[in-house]
Amino acid sequence: MTNIDIEISEVGPRDGLQSIKTIMSTEDKKAWIAAEAAAGVPEIEVGSFVPPSVIPQLADTAEVVAYARTIPGLAVAALVPNLRGAENAIAAGAHKISIPLSVSETHSLKNVKRSHVQMLEEIDLIVQRIRELPEGERPKFEVGLSTAFGCTIEGPVSEDLVVQLAVKAVALGVDEVGLSDTTGYGNPAQLKRLTKRIWENCGREKLNGVHLHNTRGQGLANALAAVDIGLTTIDSSLGGIGGCPFAPGASGNIVTEDLVFMLEAMGLKTGIDIEKLLAVRELVQKALPEEEMYGFTPEAGLPKGFVAATGS
Amino acid sequence: MTNIDIEISEVGPRDGLQSIKTIMSTEDKKAWIAAEAAAGVPEIEVGSFVPPSVIPQLADTAEVVAYARTIPGLAVAALVPNLRGAENAIAAGAHKISIPLSVSETHSLKNVKRSHVQMLEEIDLIVQRIRELPEGERPKFEVGLSTAFGCTIEGPVSEDLVVQLAVKAVALGVDEVGLSDTTGYGNPAQLKRLTKRIWENCGREKLNGVHLHNTRGQGLANALAAVDIGLTTIDSSLGGIGGCPFAPGASGNIVTEDLVFMLEAMGLKTGIDIEKLLAVRELVQKALPEEEMYGFTPEAGLPKGFVAATGS
């Protein structure tokens, strides 16, 4: 990961695929992951350890993690809802485990059927479980502060509560917390404000990344705010796959291709070969012929004479 | 214009309508302009004084300018390609006249059939013409530095040349220059760099606005960079009308609704009532049933419990 300014964490195989009807075959997932890794994407969230009855699209996550582990240099991340999921993720060999802690307790109860207290207990158990592992085998453990920018059920969430939950998670021993704009409610000023407050209360090294949605078209502006303030990891999804809760052009996750174009155009190295990244799209579209893919840069093409910050 | 942090200049009736096939009726244009003004939009570019044979969609610009002038508080802007257009704009009563000076000379020759030297001569003549008017009747005269971020024909343009042309225009006596990302090539770092250099060489008061395109999805990120550095006027188009050179979701101009949402969410007053602005969309869609309208916020709706910076 040397010589990278901003680390892109591709979440399409998890956040993207869980939101669409089509179930991608395990072979297609492997091909997608391999192709993005070959384009230079440093981290990929490849699945979620949830019961197949809940998210059948990700039933093969253990196999996908095991495969992704064989790709040299790739950081393999997986989402887990609870201790059981974490144990499965550890068994499969994930390098990084993320758990959602929704700032909106209403959302938390709907999403993972647990209150804040119950989630913090679960997080505590996972921290203990990871500490039992030999030092070299411990995955990185991150708490994603979901609905940190607002909730579709509760409306605005308290910024104090965002900070309090971050402090509690860090006190339990998690490696990092992340800010998640689950609902696409976030704005650049809010992102900078929340980041500063968490840094002040938890230590700067405890918050490095954001997970943004483009529901109201604010995704790249929020990503720019993140980069401006000094965050270094940004989640995104190839082709914005998975998130089309609304009409044409709307998308859920921010589009990896547009994000990488922005950063590379600004002179920020992602380590990603954007031409190769754009080529991965065809492979994924072939595997998901029924699904729409989003993104402006892929349609418009790179500017004439474009020079990326990351050399080929 | 007191109590406004960022001034939105709506360019849909000009830049939007000139790019689509449908010719909007004069009555529909008037209704659109009246409705946006009533929503609080402070400035609208209502047309372009070009020969009807070139852009038949804007053949009624003189009538539209005259009508828009009757709306209290609204700044009425019009584009002109040359002295003749400026004379027509002055006769019609435009408050603001803009002329494109394309940094890519190749583009200038294609777009307005004039070299840099010829365009600067034309600009000089317009400045003289305006000075002949009584002081209270002089329109504001702005030079839009088109293709300032790159050209689809020439590729990258020299930043030195952008600055040189800005200096020459200001030396001729224009009120302001504006940065135009005609091709959607721009990135936030470039925008800040160009702005600083023009400020250093022309004086800060000579550059206040940007005209951005969303061709590669960078529109709002670039608008955020503009606001961050201290620019105060941003062009945008309701529904992103007019610019769909590429596939679904792509758009030309940045979408007024998404831009206003970003600014208001950040606590920056635009003076615009966003609910009223969103309602204007229906009126325009009815008048342009064949044309696609873009924008994420209109589709997703405002966040639950959203509080805008501009009070109703």
From TrEMBL, chains A, B:
Residues 6-278 form the Pyruvate carboxyltransferase domain. GO terms for biological process: ketone body biosynthetic process; L-leucine catabolic process. It holds the Pfam family HMGL-like. The keyword Metal-binding applies. One of its GO terms (molecular function) is metal ion binding. Its EC number is 4.1.3.4. The keyword Lyase applies. Keywords: Lyase, Metal-binding. Belongs to the HMG-CoA lyase family. This is Hydroxymethylglutaryl-CoA lyase. It comes from Litorivivens lipolytica.
